[in-house]
Amino acid sequence: MAKKPLPSKICPVCGRPFNWRRKWARDWENVRYCSERCRRSR
């Protein structure tokens, strides 16, 4: 059984794409940054 592709977004700070993670499942619409480091250096 093939897995479905995970949704992804582009981080506005570093410009890299990042994929959906289970810990972001409830709040995926509000996730903007790929990591804490990018969130702090916005």
Descriptive notes:
By secondary structure, the protein is α+β, with helices and mostly antiparallel strands. The chain has one helix at 36-40; strands spanning 8-10, 17-19. A two-stranded antiparallel ribbon has the order 1-2. The longest helix has 5 residues, at 36-40. It starts with 7 loop residues before the first strand and ends with a helix.
Index terms:
42 residues, alpha+beta, two-stranded antiparallel ribbon, 1 helix
SSE order and pairing:
Layout: E1 8-10, E2 17-19, H1 36-40
Organism: Spiribacter aquaticus
Pfam families: DUF2256
Protein name: DUF2256 domain-containing protein
Largest sheet: 2 strands, antiparallel
Written as H for each helix and E for each strand, in order along the chain, the element string is: EEH
The general outline is: elongated
Structural category: alpha+beta
How many E-type strands? 2
Summarize the structure.
This is DUF2256 domain-containing protein. It holds the Pfam family DUF2256. This protein has 42 residues and is an alpha+beta fold.
